[in-house]
Amino acid sequence: MKLTLILMTIGIFVCGQTQTDNKIREKIEGNFLGNGKKIIATAVKTKEAKGNPIEDGTPAVYEIRFSDKKLKPIKVGCCEIILINEGDLNQDGSDEISIYQAPTNGCTYAMETYSNINGHWKTIVDRFLIPTGCEVISKDDLQKRIFREKNQIFYLEKDMREGNGKLIKKKVERK
Question: Is the pTM of this model over 0.85?
Fold first, then answer.
């Protein structure tokens, strides 16, 4: 029992999330079809890793699956992911989903946002890198990375030209 509590505490600390948080985790819910019905999105490992990919091993493979089979899975490849319900960023009536994804090796994560458009998942915020310095990013910081302001979608990216890597606001170009 003691070991279980320790492992649960470590899992919460490492992922920067609690079991009651439903906006950011490996399983989230949202109105992904735009019909008001809550659907669960789950990060699923579809292929186990075999060795270190940097040393000719094979990386694990992930995809996002949905509780409503009308939604096709999102294939996201390697590696571990955290899902973020962004709400309705593009004002089409359905929630968008961001994927915060671990690197194959190292401390620079990636983030990308998808919208279900005409039954297909389309990228609405292209993949951008989030250097972490191997530190955990809080769930609040992840939730603030992509946002809507004055009918426009923005994301926050670290300015690596500066020593402190302050966050700069970048406008998402419409596709």
Answer: no
